[in-house]
Amino acid sequence: KKIIIINGPNLNLLGKREPQIYGNLSFNEFFETIKAKYPQVILEHFQSNIEGELIDKLHEVGFLYYGIILNAAAYTHTSVGIGDAVAAIETAVVEVHISNTFKREDFRHHSYVAPYAKGIIVGFGLQSYELALQSFLNPL
Ligand code: DQA
């Protein structure tokens, strides 16, 4: 099973960026841990700060992979194009956010991805990604 984590803008700064909100761990440190913990799946990671690159990646994997874990970051709240890409592809997408976006500014309460996502996991820190992964591995 191939599952990819796709991270949007500014998530390359995890660990350095507003640590009171997003924590001290870099994504790569976290990613190594999670890969070791779930050897039964082929886990990949892609990050881009560029909207079109995120759309291209969704197209590339969206008819091939078993699952997509998508944190579109700020584009969640702005990008009709990313929402349309999620609607267009066949692979199930679980939307994740590190912070509880509903506890934050109003502009973070709307998601262009959510209507097309299989489900949404919000506010559990980096564990949000692990919970999304488990949702693909242990469907009830
Ligand atoms: C985020 C929440 C977004 O509102 C914000 O723009 C991000 C990160 C999160 O994971 O908590 O960059 O997606």
Automatic annotation (TrEMBL):
Binding residue positions for substrate: 71, 77, 84, 98-99, 108
One Pfam family cited in the UniProt record for this chain: DHquinase_II
PROSITE patterns per record: DEHYDROQUINASE_II
Catalytic activity entry: 3-dehydroquinate = 3-dehydroshikimate + H2O
Record's protein name: 3-dehydroquinate dehydratase
Site residues (Transition state stabilizer), renumbered to this chain: 17
Listed HAMAP family: AroQ (MF_00169)
NCBIfam families (alphabetical): aroQ, PRK05395.1-2, PRK05395.1-3, PRK05395.1-4
Signal peptide (UniProt feature, chain positions): none
GO annotation, biological process: amino acid biosynthetic process; aromatic amino acid family biosynthetic process; chorismate biosynthetic process; quinate catabolic process
Family to which the UniProt record says this protein belongs: Belongs to the type-II 3-dehydroquinase family.
Record pathway: Metabolic intermediate biosynthesis; chorismate biosynthesis; chorismate from D-erythrose 4-phosphate and phosphoenolpyruvate: step 3/7
Entry EC no(s): 4.2.1.10
Role noted for this protein: Catalyzes a trans-dehydration via an enolate intermediate.
